[in-house]
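Notes on consecutive records. When two proteins share a document, each keeps its own sequence and its own token line. Never mix them. Below: protein one.
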Amino acid sequence: MKCIYCNHHHTYSLCDGLKKCAKCKRKFSPKKQLFIQNAIELFCQNTNALQASKILDCSYLKISNIFGRFRHAISVFLENDFESNKGKIVEYEEFVYTLNKKNIYETQSILCFSDNQTIFTILMPSIALSQKLTSDEIKKFFLFHKFIKLQSNQTKINEFRSFFSLHIKNYRGVSKQNLFYYIKELEFKFNYNEQERMKILSKLI
């Protein structure tokens, strides 16, 4: 088994079940690594935390925290990718997402960029807070954006918007504080297929 830290090919087993690298001398748990790899596979297959906790026979809190680590790592990866490729952007569009349909003020604006192959997103401040709109003004804002949506051509951005609308429903009760990470997860899953996701995430964790 290769070392998870330096990728050295020679490791040896310890009496407590851990492995120790012959080169960097660091220890790691093969059992823990197998658990993480299984969690990565489930995450990349769009398995939610509750389902994953049952499959892996662990607590919901444990797998939820691990999925949270995945989302954080993905977000850093995507932000760096955007910085490297923002000069290739050919189009952008804005759409809105309401966290709570009963409260019109809990509405977030999402900027979506495309280079015709990859989607990049930026979460903007809430519409009510950033623009200090009244309730009537926000309703007019929604009507305007519905009109734009109907008039738009079929683009990569529209594909992502449909993908986002479909999959964000799988996350029940997304908080305002965590919305950024869920958007980044969906951006990641839209841009990469399952095998690509697993390969990238395995390197990030």
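Protein two starts on the next line and is unrelated to protein one.
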Amino acid sequence: MTDKDKNWLDGIKAGGSAGQKAFEELSIFYGPKLYSQILKIAKNPTLSKDILQEVFIKTWLHLPKFEGRSTLYSWLYRITHNETLNILRNEKKRTHVSLSQEVIEIIPGHSSLEGQSAEEILTLLNAAVAALPHKQAAVFELKYFQHYTFKEIEEITGTSQGALKASYHIAKSKISSFLHLKLNHCLLESSKL
């Protein structure tokens, strides 16, 4: 636990205006990271804001139960992840796309990447991640975009490193397939013009 986390927790446990100020600082500090995680799963900014509000309510209610065995962010991440999935399950808004097609690796300099801007490639990558099952998307997000180690992801998610590595490998394969299909589609469309 960081010194900043400890100060926030001590302030919140003290209660009163100091507790409110500490919780506000904690919310401002971790809110954008948590919102980003929610948005990647919910894919709806309005719903994501509502979920984040629910996450902070749960955090406030359950903060006395925080034992400090993990980092505060890991604990918040778990609450966020679980709350997001619960709300989506209840609202039945999450869709799932299977990408179980032939796997073809996209490597830098691949001819189908020529002519694609960095923004277009990132948009395709985000679409590929969005099509993954939520657990694979979460593992990929933490490993690829946020550069967490498998050990850190294990602490955050409570999933074994072996299972995380398998999820990450499968996610990479599905993303590679998705990108290949999308890029080939773009090439076919441009060749028709």
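For the record: Residues 93-109 have pLDDT under 50 and may be disordered.
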